[in-house]
Amino acid sequence: QVQLVESGGGLVQSGGSLRLSCAASGFPSDYYVIAWFRQAPGKEREALSCIETSDKITYWPGSVTGRFTIGRDNANTVYLDIASLKPEDTAVYYCAAGNYYYCSAYVPPMHYWGNGTLVTVSS
User: Would you say 49 and 58 are in contact if contact means Cβ atoms under 8 Å apart?
Assistant: First the structure.
């Protein structure tokens, strides 16, 4: 059973930085992708970035500002670093995974989702 558990959210001041982590386990195969999404209050969910088991990375339009960095701490933990936080970054950040060999330029449906971690940025 696939489990995704996010951590690292909280209250942070504008201009600060944050690392979110996603602990992943239970994948049925060796090939899958893990991605980060966010949903701000009253807004649509936004796709940020994706990492393959080979560590190849794709950044989606939601992270076009260049302030987001996805990476892997180890085989089972993926992180998302967010720099120069702004109040508009306030959102629930979700880790998701899909049974795909690679991350594509478009955002495919994800098969598994974590419960999310709330990031609140104060001005």
Answer: yes
Tokens 């201009």 correspond to what residue?
15
pLDDT tens digits for range 67-122: 999 999 988 999 999 999 999 999 999 999 999 999 998 999 999 999 999 999 99
pLDDT tens for 9-46 read 999 999 999 999 999 999 988 889 999 999 999 999 99
Output helix, strand, coil percentages for the chain, rounded to the nearest 5: 5, 50, 45
pLDDT score recorded for residue 64: 67
Which tokens in the block code for residue 110?
């994800």
d(CA 8, CA 93): 10
Residue 39 near residue 52 (C-beta atoms within 8 A): no
- Side chain identity, residue 74: N
Q: Residue 105 half-sphere exposure, CB side, CA atoms within 13 Å?
A: 0
**Is 97 in contact with 4 (CB distance < 8 Å)?**
yes
Contacts of 83 (CB under 8 A, 6+ apart): 17, 67, 68, 69
